[in-house]
Amino acid sequence: MAFPTAVNDQITDAVTQSNVKVLGEAPAVALGQLYQSLAQASATAAQNAVTNQQNANQVALAVTTRCVQSLVRGSAGSVAAEQE
């Protein structure tokens, strides 16, 4: 303690130690929050990638189905025309 005061020395020491503890933990807490934010952002990016891939697969399936329908209708139409 720097100089004697009217407050009990134990109280001032406890407050000082609490302040030092908070200041000492601040960098670790800040890094912890940063890592949590990065993990959340990475997880969200991965989830978006999976969702986009599923949507692209559904579009590809729809296109494939439409192409097969066109091929089946086209070949059935040509077979019916040949039989006449």
UniProtKB/TrEMBL annotation:
Highest taxon above the source species: Bacteria
Record's protein name: RebB family R body protein
